[in-house]
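Key idea: predict the complex, not the pieces.
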Amino acid sequence: MSFTLTNVTLADGRKVNVAIDGDRITSVGHEQHGELVDCDGLVLLSGFVDVHTHLRQPGYEQSETVLTGSMAAALGGYTAVHPMANTMPVADNAGVVEQIQRLGEDAGLVEVQPIGAVTLGLGGEQLAELGSMNASRAKVTIFSDDGKCVSDALVMRRALAYVKTFNGVIAQHAQEPRLTQNAQMNEGAVSAELGLAGWPAVAEESIIARDIMLAELTESRLHVCHVSTAGSVEQIRLGKARGVRVTAEVTPHHLLLTEELARTYDPVYKVNPPLRTASDVEALREALIDGTIDVIGTDHAPHPDELKSCEWSSAAFGMLGLETAASIAQLVLVDSGKSTWVRLEEVLSKVPAVISGLKSQGQTISAGSVANLVVIDPSVKRTIIDGGASKSNNQPYVGMELPGQVIHTIFNGKFTVRDGVLAGKA
Amino acid sequence: MKLKHLVSASDLSHAQAIALLDTTAEMAVVSQRDVKKLPALRGKTVVNLFYEDSTRTRVSFEVAEKRLSADVVNVSAKGSSVSKGESLKDTVQTLAAISADIIVMRHSASGAAHTLAESDWFEGSVVNAGDGTHEHPTQALLDAYTLRSRLFGNKSGSDLSGLNVAIVGDIAHSRVARSNLILLKTLGANVHLIGPPTLLPGALSAKASSANYSFDHAIESQHFDAVMMLRIQSERMNAAFFPSEAEYSRLWGLNRERFARMGKETLIMHPGPMNRGLEIDSFCADHPNSTVLDQVQNGVSARMAVLYHLAGTDRND
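Result:
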């Protein structure tokens, strides 16, 4: 397929024609060929890359499948996602990660790059076969027990050291388990009032501090998942200043929502790590802008109604995120006037691609690059009405007005979303 | 007064709280009659949906409901999650389908009554009979009524302005403490929280007139019109909230010696069931200043008052 996105605005503000032939960009400038797709007033960015996604397959197909999750991802402007390992069976061996990758290829909407478990069965005790997963067809480079913390310091140290074999990275869900037993929400004034067991910030910050030291000791790569507190930002800032190879991720919901929402006792706001205070949100936004936090990861976590339509403490942790992440990024970075489209493209596309080592993602928009692209209309205001393409409906933004709309998503030179509609659905 | 649900003590304005106390006084009179019945809830179905065992609260509600002529159904539900039996939603929708008018719910999950009241599972009224470590609003009402009747002779229309009430013990896990803190403040009382720092959240202390880790220091620095002792659960010991029952009792228990250092008029309150010898000794539990049995008795009247107003019965009978 040969087409040209005409009069489209790049992140740096240049207005250009971008011509695409096959799976590659053939020119960026004045040239045009093939079908002309008018993109006047729209912003073109490299396709988004999510380093933290739950696609729930195999095992939890009532929540999401690789196909429905890929649909949500494409609609959200993503061209690559990294499904977490907490499936059933756990993605702790080459067989399962290859299966997930294959399901992704069958869906064909985004690059599905599986994350492997750090420990067998997410048990936190025995290392999974990290080398085999890396050597498999799925070429896993990111390993995480997400949902659970690799809390044992020795296991964490060994895992960090071991993945140096193939320049892998350990993505840690930082949560000291003893400090968060039965925890339901952020610990503080609101939890005390609501009588819900608290999840103290220190349970996250102490693990991050420890892991940064272990990464320093092992000279390995640490990625901190879903950073949620101002104190965590401080730990990461200190680690980076010392030259430790640590990267950090923040979720869209931690950039926008606060613990005050727990007052509704509506489990759609129950998430792990929990929604924090307004000053944490402010610190996370600043850290994302100044580079202390490297990427936005959605932690898209679909759950069926029966796990959310119940009393708070029985409900599952997690909320949807793929179809709203770019809007929240635009709100926080661009519309706030505090940062730029260039930064947005970095945190949603370029840096996550580098962390994962995905060669055909997050590339500079220039001739010869693989055409993994997203076109956004930043002027649209849309009110979120439901869970979108996800199989689940645990959408915390229902009723909220968010800026920006993904108009086209182009994956390997083909439209997966065109005019806001999934390809093949128009 | 129109009251759709009673989920939190904060649902009540000053005027509504006074009205409920006044109605409680009228209900207390009914309970002393030969025929202890009012027709207020005749033809109404009230379900006591208890996810936690609580003989005293369930019996209190049941008696209150029967004295108001309601049809009473007791449901002991087990488990609270999808994995353990039927979900709350399905249970409640079942009760709605058999035309229950009021659900009185005790649940181990904080916020469960709130979730039920806000849901579209059930159209009727919801009374929170204790939700996890959150609230127990009818307990606060009966405590306020007990204070008013013992200290102010139950003068109609009066509140608790200027009273100093200490709540002592496991504030962090106490729904009784949370509801009392809210309601006693609404009624003008000064609430003082006392307990070990592991069990006294700063956020609640900030809402109180004072907070003290030392019971003895609190007694020295403040005259209390009443001390409300909370039940301490020994499982808290295993979670390292305090080292031993003996030490807890020594530092935060109400005993004869400590009581002697308070005013002679200080009332001794306890929501029950008491751990004699732990948070309270028998001298204090059985002392004439103890209101423990008054509280039980007043519990029925206070719950009658709540149900009476929920039923939307505005007639003066």
